What does this fold into?
Amino acid sequence: MLLTLTVNGREVSRNVEPRTLLVEFLRDGLGLTGTHIGCDTTQCGACTVHLAGRAVKSCTVLAAQAGGAEVTTIEGLSGDGLHPMQQAFIDHHGLQCGFCTPGMIMACVALAHEDPDMTEAQARERLVGNICRCTGYNGIVAALMDGAKRMAGDV
Amino acid sequence: MYSFEYARPNTLNEALDILCSDVEPRLLAGGQTLLAAMKHRLTAHSTLIDLQAIDALRGVSVDGAILRIGAMVRHAEVAAHIEIRGRLPALAVLAEGIADPSVRNMGTMGGSVANNDPAADYPAAVLALGATIHTNLRDIPADDYFLGMFATALARDEILTAISFPLPDAAGYFKLPHPASGYVLAGAFVARFGDTTRVAINGAGPCVFRDAAAEGALSARFHPDAAAGLHFDPEDFTEDLHAGKDYRAQVLPHVIRRALTRALA
It folds into this structure.
């Protein structure tokens, strides 16, 4: 099937098999390998991207479901320089091996848009769908909370 | 995943045309359960009929004492909806507790209720509130809808379009989730209408069910203490590597007590 969608602000068209997952389309079809495949079972969140502005797990979305929609990946998060959430991850040491980081950042940006004033307990609860096997959660939670404030222009 | 054709009809009639003419079609709502099953090759279909473009399956409205939610309304929308939070907060809390935020952005109420996973959340609310399931063909009372594990009254050529929930005087939901998967090991939705209480239990058995003894006790006294004397026969409960039957039976009175506490909060 011919699939057309907008990825990181650019319209792309490709012939794909209907069973192509969004994450496969992004990585293999478009070469956007910043979106990682961790568990491939909707649990770890390494493949998190934004679909029509909402965070989704791209290993459990068909590329076809995103047809006609706008998708943003870690590569398209910031047009120029680092996004405030990326900078917050650096400043708070929100990554160790870095494998979960693209998904973490995409999830955190969406969470920050929804509620910039979350408490630490809320931040931990809302990150339940993103797993860091280095267990570096303290830095990630700090980055989420601070990044949310930066995005809201409070810092 | 085995290969399939993909269709995205714009109207219910177009969807029904494909559903009735294709060899092994399957409706695709949010896909958060179906796609996972297909990736494991547990199920295969000739065509997936994506319902996302059908406007008739969307929307939330309140008419008098009835809350109507379209089948394709996503969990995150239910959780955040101002009117649902105000009129039926137990349902918003239930939706907010499903899986994780990213899954809630895709998963839909209709998909969950059509699938009827014994460990899913929505069926408990639908049954306890005595909701009506609307389809393209008819209106089905919740008491006639849930038939067994992954089994419902839906026919092959039937599409769940919306669910109407009667607004209760009080309602609460509590689940004991599996700590890793989040699926319900034992859950209870309690709903108070006048001096009657309906209690639906999910997770514990192969299908959501109402419990007459619990409903009797909680109709007489709608208070957390009323759950203390309840006993459940583990005979027909689920026994798997996550929890035994006896454990599920023993934990249920405590689950109901907490659901009541939430209903009265």
In short: Chain B touches chain A at residues 1-6, 8, 28, 31-32, 35-36, 38-39, 48, 50, 52, 76, 99-103, 105-106, 182 (CB under 8 Å). The longest strand of chain B covers residues 184-193. The longest helix of chain B spans residues 245-264. Chain B is about 30% helix and 25% strand.
